[in-house]
Amino acid sequence: MTQPYVPERRPIASRNYSVSIRIATWIAGLGVTPNAISVAGMIAGGLAGVAFALTKQAAAGWLWFLAAAALMQLRLLANMLDGMVAVQTARASPVGELFNEVPDRVSDTAIFVGAGYAVGSLPELGYLAAIGALFTAYVRAEGKVAGAHQEFCGPLAKPQRMAVMTLAAIYAALAPAAWQPQLVAWPGRTTLAWALLLIAVGSAITTLRRLLRIGKALRKEPK
């Protein structure tokens, strides 16, 4: 008898919440496929990037910041539910892992690049944060290819990156201008620029930490 495919998933505590299980069961009952949920998460991530960029163009930029925050959380919700539905419906597969990983990289890039063009931000920091996020995922995937387990450690793995960006978006939307932190090296750059700088630095630390842990695992050294 063929054993069902069991993907190596990121540990997420909220998967065990009763409300999460009920939502996943409901979605599975509707016949929605896990891959469709993954694509929906990518669309939410892309729209979050657009919302960030629109904060510079629209008069009510604060509304677009809040929209970006909501869309990023929808992206994370989809990222959680696609795996849960795949397991519940026995549809987990190697192809499903492609749908899990590739849309995530599109979402990350769209969000960080879009945030770079937000009001009070800096495009260069957006691109830098996007590169950092992509590289952390690349190192994780390479560790698995090399024969180690997937390394999901932080300090700025995907959930933490999205938490930083969501909080920054909400703060940028609701805090008075006088309360927005200034980047001294870049006059006029405020909350979103700080958030992207934190993402870039934190991603570099995360990448190094993952490399060290993967190296130990491949050498069969104790952690």
Short structural summary:
The chain is mostly helical. It has helices spanning 18-29, 34-54, 61-88, 94-116, 123-146, 158-174, 191-218.
Walk me through this protein's architecture.
The chain is mostly helical. It has one domain: CDP-alcohol phosphotransferase transmembrane (TM) domain (Four Helix Bundle (Hemerythrin (Met), subunit A), Up-down Bundle). Helices cover 69% and strands 0% of the residues. The protein has 7 helices and no strands. It has helices at residues 18-29, 34-54, 61-88, 94-116, 123-146, 158-174, 191-218. Helix 5 runs parallel beside helix 7 (191-218). The longest helix is centred in the middle third of the chain and has 28 residues, at 61-88. The mean pLDDT is 89.
What does the secondary structure layout of this molecule look like, with pairings?
Blueprint: H1 18-29, H2 34-54, H3 61-88, H4 94-116, H5 123-146, H6 158-174, H7 191-218
Helix pairs in contact: 1-3, 2-3, 2-4, 3-4, 3-6, 4-5, 5-7, 6-7
* CATH topology-level fold name: Four Helix Bundle (Hemerythrin (Met), subunit A)
CATH class: Mainly Alpha
Outline type: globular
Largest sheet: none
CATH fourth-tier homologous superfamily: CDP-alcohol phosphotransferase transmembrane (TM) domain
- Work out the strand percent: under 5%
**Number of beta strands:** 0
Any guess at the CATH architecture?
Up-down Bundle
Number of helices: 7
Give the low-pLDDT segments: none
- The termini sit apart by 36 Å
Structural class: mainly alpha
Helix content, binned percent = 55-70%
Please state the CA-atom Rg, rounded to the nearest Å.
Answer: 18 Å
Helix and strand succession? HHHHHHH
